[in-house]
Amino acid sequence: MSSQQTGRHFKGALLLLATAFMLLLSMGWWTGSQHAARLDGEKRIRLLRQAADIAGNINPDMIRELSFTVADEGTPVFERLRAQLINEAKMIPSARWVYSMTDLDGLIVFGPESTPLDDPQYSPPGTSYHNPPKELQIAFKQKRLVTAGPYTDEWETFISAFTRYLIRTAAGC
Q1: Distance from C-alpha of 37 to C-alpha of 104, rounded to nearest angstrom
Q2: Where are the domains of the chain?
Q3: For residue 138, what are the CA distances in angstroms to 53, 98, 112, 129, 162?
């Protein structure tokens, strides 16, 4: 075999090896991204279920008593709801906080939450949420469960689940 033929075989083998490597790398990337997407979906479903369970455990009469202003702080209903949210947060190890919010004429404000009072990220009742994710507006307007994130707001970067707490009456929602 001439050196010219040997060179062509070597180049062909090298091209085949490079192609096989790229194919293997692509398949590994695709498999990894599919696995990550599946895990992300499973975690978001779990987060939605947890949010729905928490919302379902809240007494609607207590919510009706709140003004979602600083005047709520220290009231018996506020403190009961805060204690309930603290207990709910303990049941979800992956949850950093559990909190309540309402939409007051287009302004989203915080109510009771599980955040420790001495935490710099504690939001007293009535605190405005200036940079909420768009999914929060969807939860309020469409009255449904949604996940958001990762998103960055005025505090940090989060992945959250939001549920529109519905106060039901005999006539419906």
Answers
A1: 36
A2: 41-162
A3: 19, 19, 21, 15, 9
